[in-house]
Amino acid sequence: MFEIKRKRVLNPQMTEMTVAAPYIAKKAQAGQFIILRVNETGERIPLTIADYDREAGTINIIYQIVGKTTMLLNTLEEGDCIQDVVGPLGAASELSEIRRAAVIGGGTGCAIAYPQAKALHAQGSQVTMIAGFRSQELIILADEMKAVSDKLVIMTDDGSNGQKGFVTNALQSEIDAGADFDAVIAIGPLPMMKAVSELTRGYGIKTIVSMNSLMIDGTGMCGGCRVTVGGETKFACVDGPDFDGHLVDFDEAMKRGSMYRKEEEDCREAFRCRLTGGHCHHD
């Protein structure tokens, strides 16, 4: 059992939890993730390690409340326990050779981009961070991202924070202004990562994306997280989650990611009915 030490609401859709997990905190590195199970009958879901404190023996996870398991997880409060937390899993991000980076996060992806920026900043690299959200009320981790970047640009789709546009608009502006990036790290929705990769391809800028796809066992046994990279099948849980954005088959990944959308919606609605004590035809 893993005790929740702190719970913080980041916006109406996203929550951060600090969880006691000393053995995971001891070994965690940027880019790695955990797989958790809320209770004995719960499903396994992967979540990136958003931060860790080796001395306190804790890790931070950030999740968007979109499905049954994240809804169930969000019913837990400080002092409650998560049944199982396994990790750290996945290959740590290879950042040591990067001296000038643009780290790009889209929505929930900012929770994954933040530890990348933090690791780069800690090694003395120059970090320009670009974060994109649909609107101002959904912005998360603004202070944290500012603290680990030399420059932070926050864009919103509707311009409610004063800077309207997509992360690709901000990246193009940085390149036009003469930014000489060793690498661009893009983490967020698949269409966003595809758009960033297509932009950087024309400039020959190394681009790393995080393929946080469907994962079940986290050990490469089930094959659920397979992704095509450079014409070869890779498994995000053991070969990644970081991959060369110029080699990823994003169209295939997007198609696979939507395969079980109806089942996910049915499961979510059935669980919502149970939470509110109502009756639902899904039950």
**CATH level-3 fold name of the largest domain:** Rossmann fold
Assign the CATH superfamily of the largest domain: Nucleotide-binding domain of ferredoxin-NADP reductase (FNR) module
Mean pLDDT: 90
Bin the strand percentage: 25-35%
Shape: globular
Oligomer: single chain
CATH architecture designation of the largest domain: 3-Layer(aba) Sandwich
End-to-end span in angstroms?
A: 29 Å
Report the CATH C-level class of the largest domain.
Alpha Beta
Describe what you observe in this structure.
It contains nine helices and 15 strands. β1 and β2 form a beta hairpin. The chain folds into two domains: 2-89, Beta Barrel (Elongation Factor Tu (Ef-tu), domain 3); 100-210, Rossmann fold. It has 283 residues and is of the alpha/beta class. The chain has helices spanning 22-27, 68-73, 110-122, 142-147, 167-176, 190-201, 236-239, 250-257, 261-276; strands at residues 2-11, 14-20, 33-37, 45-53, 58-64, 81-82, 84-89, 100-106, 126-133, 151-156, 183-187, 206-210, 226-229, 232-235, 242-244. The chain is globular and about 55 Å long. The strands form three sheets. A seven-stranded antiparallel β-sheet has the order 6-1-2-5-4-3-7. Helix content is 29%, strand content 31%.
Please name the defining characteristics of this protein:
single chain, 283 residues, alpha/beta, Elongation Factor Tu (Ef-tu), domain 3, Rossmann fold, 2 domains, 7-stranded antiparallel beta sheet, 6-stranded mixed beta sheet, 15 strands, globular
SSE topology sketch:
Elements (H helix, E strand, L loop, with lengths): L1 E10 L2 E7 L1 H6 L5 E5 L7 E9 L4 E7 L3 H6 L7 E2 L1 E6 L10 E7 L3 H13 L3 E8 L8 H6 L3 E6 L10 H10 L6 E5 L2 H12 L4 E5 L15 E4 L2 E4 H4 L2 E3 L5 H8 L3 H16 L7
Parallel strand pairs: 8-9, 8-11, 9-10, 11-12
Antiparallel strand pairs: 1-2, 1-6, 2-5, 3-4, 3-7, 4-5, 12-15, 13-14
Helix pairs in contact: 5-6
